[in-house]
Amino acid sequence: MKGVNLSVGISGEEIKLLHSKLRQLDFDIPVTEAQREFFGPATRRAVQQFQAEHGLKITGEVDERTAAAINAAIASKRVPAMTASRDGSNSASGVPTRSRPLGASQENVVSPGVPVITRAVPGAAAPPPALPTAPRPPQTPDSRMETMIVRGVVRQADGSPLVGATVRAVDRDLRHEEPLGEAITGTDGRYEISYTADQFRRAEKRNADLIVRALDATGAVLAASPTIFNSRPVEIIDLVVGGGKYSGPSEYEQLLAEITPLLEETPIADLTEDEQHQDITFLAGETGQNPQRITFLILAHRMERTTGLLPEVFYGFFRQNMPTRLPALLLQSRRALRRALEAALRDNIIPAKLRDDIETTLDALKRLVGRHVLQSIDTESSFPTADLLRIAGLSGEEQEKVLNLFIENEGPVEDVWKTLRQDLRAGMADELQFTLQLGRLTGNNLPLVKALHDLRRGGTLQSLRDVARKLDARALTELVNKSASGEDGGIPPHVPGATREERVANYVNGIIETLKDVFPTTFIAQGIAKEPEVDLRLARQALERNPNLDLNEPLPADLVLTGISTADQAKARGAIESLRREIKMFPELDHKRLLEAPGSTGTASTRLQNPIRRGVAQFFANEPDFEFADTHIDKYLAGRPNAFNGIAEEER
Question: Whole-structure pTM over 0.90, yes or no?
């Protein structure tokens, strides 16, 4: 591999040779890249790691100098010893390190002010000798002047670099520490300290028993490593300040690092998936990343363009199943948004540095409501809730107040309505509640909502219960057709039907079924108010021929109908069945009295004038808000003296 320049995207024999050499140096190359002889993200990471271990410029590309170093490492079978932080990053590069051989024991140090370091523990089972080294040469005066290095990264617990900190390295003896050198961390938190054996207090000592400490401007220790006994010529020690644990790059950061080299300067927000460009498919195939996560990354960067907020924030929301449309996202409650970000941080989906900015981020999202929800006129980004607020008659200021109250609310929703009744113009809270209820009922069919709201303004409807009481299927169908705009007439797309008429019928039926679920008593009252038609003359004749007939039992097959014409016998049986149903519904009904009432001997069918049915119907008319569920009738009536108005005393 001489005179080569290999980088991401190249394939062929040179990459096959590169993979072979990297594997000899114990780097893992995935099958997906090896089989294709392809220089992909995993190969780039291995090259970056090798460059970091050998003090080369970290580019991820195999230039002439890197190729020479790889060849030399293969020839000598020696690779500089290193330590790795718990997150699998070496301190000089921040890129993942390769796994140690199985059987190697590790010591993970995580305590206040102590770094996260992985080293072989003295006395533990030794790893297999993958990379043997030559015996140490005898120590000479010249060898004591050979330069040794300790380098690493100092991070905050959130993973951000600690800039401008002083890092000191010392050689520890039994009761003494000898300074070896110090450095100031750069903008990336990195440091490097060089020293020689000549600085050791004991002349016979060949390697330092190394301790590294990070200090603030006053000299106070921010973090310190454990003692690295018999340290190697090159040691990599990362420190974490604040007693926390650095859990490594977040999912967002890793995904970004994976796809960035493949973008060819195309902005992430401009990536797309259509007939002309299959960007997501390509990136998923090249990196092995989940296509949905790549899609979320693209959407997050588009959100950044629109809002100015960090794309990491939106990526965290999307990974927690929050809406990917901005108006819908902005209408989520503050509590839901906070929980989503906290979960994304806990699972290391987004960078830990965002933890301290959660409330600031939520405040910024709140300020976007007016522009992106209420004032949006773009069809693509409009949201039904904003239109519902306008239909309710709220001013722009009132609309923003309403949305912010609902978004900010973390208690019972009743608290919001209580505040709105105090803050909005008189009656507007009720108008709003009715309109939002209509939105839920109709599936946000805005033309139908407006038509129903107009009926309220005209006095026909006062509440959602009135929709159930006063509008039957025919009336609702007429409203849907009259208010329709466009081919679908505002009917939600999920409503089935081969023709528009079928879809309207199914849509209206769905509305009625919903109303039945919400107001079952209203529909029961409507059914009770409809008196059944019964041919009392035929019923009386059938009962006279069957004096022992028990109307609480099913009719016998041998019902005696002698003397009743063949044409009327079926009607007579039907009349008895209707009478049976009435008795079953109202057990205290005196049916004999009904049969003796004036008109019962006539020839035409008549409505059964059941006084109990009429009394119950009148009760429901007096108490339209009565509900059967969890209601004790005696307690209910105790506080409602007018419940029996219009009902005869003996029938109450």
Answer: no
